[in-house]
Every structure is written in C-alpha cells, then in structure tokens.
Design goal:
6-stranded mixed β-sheet, alpha+beta, Nuclear Transport Factor 2, Chain: A, disordered C terminus, elongated
Length: 240
C-alpha cells in the first residue's frame, strides 16, 4: 500500500512539472508571436507610408517644370554683375543670418541691397555703404549743417553729407545677425522691407526700411529721423 502511494505521489509530481514546463513554453511562444505581430504591423505601416510618399512625388514632367521655374526666378533676381551667379542670399524670411554670412550682393533686388548695406556697415566700408544710400532732402540739409558745425580735423573727415550719414548708419545698426520679416511693395520702384536686427547681447529690434529703385539698382532711403539722435548730441538747437 505504501508502495502504491509513493508511486501515485511520484506520478503526480512529474505531471505537475510537465504542465508547468508546458505552460512556460506556451507563454514564451505567445511572447514570440506577439513580437512577430508587432514587427509585421510596423512593416505594414512603413509600406503604407512608402506608398503614400510615392503618390505625392511629382511626375518627371512636373518635376522638370518646377526646376525650370526655380531657374527662371533665380535668373530674374540676378544683377548685371558677372559675379552674381555665384552668390547666395543670406537674408531669408524666417531665418537668422549671422554677420559672418553677409556678402556684397549688389543692388538688383531690395533684399540684395539690404544685405549689401549690412555687409558694408559691419565691415566699416563707408564707400560701399554710400553707394546703397539715398538721402532725403531734409536729411541732406541736416547732415550738411552738422558738418559745418564741426571743427578742424573732425570737419575734414566728411567731404559730403553722404560720408557723414554713412558713418551714422554704420554706427546705429545692431550687427550680430539679421532676419527678413516681410516686404511691402505698392509700386514697381518703391518697397518697404521689415527687418529684425539682433545685437551681440541678444537684444532684438524690428525696423522698417524704405527703398527706391534707381537706374543702377535699389537704394535705401535715409529719413531725417535716422540722424536726429546724433544731431541732438551735437547740440542742434532745433532738435528738442
């Protein structure tokens, strides 16, 4: 009787071990099946995304048409300067352009004039800066009076109102980085550019600059307000 009980106990224990192993193997198999299913779902998702992107891709003819439009737009924006073909505008809407990227872009477009102005101001190139400026009549008169009020060597530094205004403009611009915001153009030969300027401490200010198209390209119109702070410091009695 004891022998039979021992046999029954041994068989029961063995059966328990067997079912435990079987359940472990089933759980492991289920885990592997779940992982395989997840991988298949990811493959299916990527295939659908690939098919969607293929549908969005333009046909060969449409792609060539878009490329031709880009080439025409670039050609229209180029100046007569033969070096213009190798230039890329640093100033673009929505992007901060650091001073290290500013270049002499000529004056074929309002944006090119702005970058040329910033490039000349940051490098202290008064001669180049003068070439992109137009003085309003009142600005010219005020600058001439400021020069006449200078003494000795200081007066001899400035041969014309343009020289003085160029120095003032160069000294008043934050020259760390710049960003185009928008252009407002009501006439073919006049435009207003909205520009953000940042100084080395990170302080930003937004300005609007008026430009006019002349026979040799776009130029920046300097209003009297641009030199009034300097005139006030000099002691012009008409500046409150």
């Amino acid at each position: 009787m004891k022998l039979i009980s021992a046999l029954v106990f041994t068989v029961g224990a063995a059966s328990g071990i067997y079912w435990g192993v079987e359940r472990h193997d089933a759980a492991l198999l289920q885990s592997r099946l779940d992982a395989a299913r997840d991988r298949q779902d990811e493959i299916d998702r990527r295939r659908l995304e690939h098919d969607r992107l293929l549908r969005l891709q333009p046909a060969a003819g449409e792609l060539e048409r878009l490329r031709a439009e880009v080439r025409r737009a670039r050609q229209d924006g180029r100046s007569a300067d033969p070096q213009a073909n190798s230039r890329v505008d640093s100033l673009r809407p929505g992007f901060w352009a650091p001073a290290s990227t500013w270049r002499d872009q000529g004056r074929a477009t309002p944006e090119a004039t702005l970058e040329t102005m910033l490039w000349a101001a940051s490098g202290g190139n008064v001669s180049a800066l003068k070439n992109v400026l137009i003085l309003a009549p009142e600005t010219r008169t005020k600058a001439a009076e400021m020069i006449s009020g200078l003494q000795g060597a200081s007066r001899q530094q400035f041969g014309s109102p343009e020289d003085l205004v160029a120095v003032i403009v160069a000294g008043s611009l934050p020259l760390d980085s710049a960003q185009l915001v928008a252009r407002q153009q009501n006439q073919d030969d006049q435009a207003i550019e909205y520009l953000r300027l940042k100084d080395s401490s990170g302080i930003t200010r937004q300005v609007f600059l008026s430009l006019q198209k002349s026979t040799d390209g776009w130029k920046l119109i300097v209003p009297p307000s641009a030199i009034e702070p300097v005139a006030k410091d000099q002691g012009d009695p008409r500046i409150p």
